[in-house]
Design brief:
The structure is a single chain. This protein is α+β, with helices and mostly antiparallel strands and 273 residues long. It has six helices and 13 strands. The strands form four sheets. It has a six-stranded mixed beta sheet with strand order 6-5-4-3-8-7. It has a three-stranded mixed beta sheet with strand order 9-10-13, covered by helices on one side. Strands 1-2 form a two-stranded antiparallel ribbon.
Length: 273
């Protein structure tokens, strides 16, 4: 078997002083690591004097990567975040035609993505102009006070949309709670609070995920906002009487009574009074 020989242009070495040099056409696996990448495989266009790489993606997302600073590891080593060269088939080279075709496709894809970005920016601008006109009674948020302004705007918007309902918007710990009694349905209030959402906590990754929100960019966002609708005994009993009057239930049966109360709670949650 031919001895593997790679040399870093920057003079560095990879494991046990094996010299490392990556040549045009050699195979490199994703910017995020071979095991984690869903973006295909790269062909080296050239390795710069500083050791960084110019690469083109073969298939995948069809990207050109310029002056990339990799973490050099062979794919035979432990996988993780980084750039992996192919030390299993060190003599493999993509042909000049494969490289040229990949570059051509990647350049076309870059133009398409740029056009999409320009169009998205135009639409975002139009949407923001409409929002500023529709919600001209709200205060604009700046980076340094976006949450403070968001809470103020939330109170204003709740009052505007539900003038007969009394709300409390208060902070507890790191979250804000919107509480009210009877009145407006939970689903209606959530439509308003959702307008100020800047993201969500992803339990699968245990990380906060930002979401695009043009309204929030203009009028502020609140990371954690919860709705708490309190139901008075008077409303609960009234809806129970109305519901049972509409249906012929045997309320002496405990199981039937449990189902009735379940449906009553559901009706209250979905209805404004």
């Amino acid at each position: 078997m031919k001895e593997t020989s790679f040399r870093l242009a920057s003079g560095g070495v990879w494991k046990e002083n094996i010299p490392v040099k990556l040549e045009r056409g050699q195979r490199v696996y994703g910017e995020w690591g071979y095991a984690f990448s869903d973006s295909g495989t790269f062909a080296i266009i050239r390795q710069r004097e500083n050791g960084n790489l110019d690469m083109v993606e073969i298939g995948g997302n069809k990207r050109l990567v310029s002056n990339h600073q990799p973490i050099y590891k062979g794919i035979s080593q432990k996988f993780g975040i980084g750039t992996y060269f192919d030390d299993k088939e060190p003599d493999f080279r993509y042909s000049e035609k494969e490289i040229a075709d990949a570059i051509s496709v990647a350049e076309d894809e870059a133009i398409r993505l740029e056009n999409e970005c320009v169009e998205a920016g135009r639409k975002d601008k139009e949407t923001k102009e409409k929002l500023l006109k529709e919600y001209d009674f709200l205060e604009r948020a700046e980076d340094y006070d976006y949450r403070k302004v968001a809470v103020k705007n939330l109170r204003t918007l709740l009052k505007k949309k539900f003038p007969k309902q009394k709300f409390s918007v208060a902070k507890s710990g790191g979250a804000y709670y919107v509480t009210w009694t009877d009145g407006v349905a939970m689903t209606e209030v959530k439509k308003v609070t959702k307008m100020f959402s800047g993201g969500y906590f992803d339990g699968m990754t245990d990380m906060w995920q930002d979401v695009k929100n043009l309204f929030g960019e203009l009028f502020g966002t609140i990371d954690y906002c919860f709705e708490q609708r309190e139901i008075s005994d008077e409303l609960r009993n009234r809806v129970f009487e109305e519901y049972t009057a509409e249906n012929n239930f045997n309320l002496e049966d405990k199981t039937t009574l449990e189902y009735v109360w379940r449906d009553v709670r559901k009706r209250i949650n979905e209805t404004s009074y």
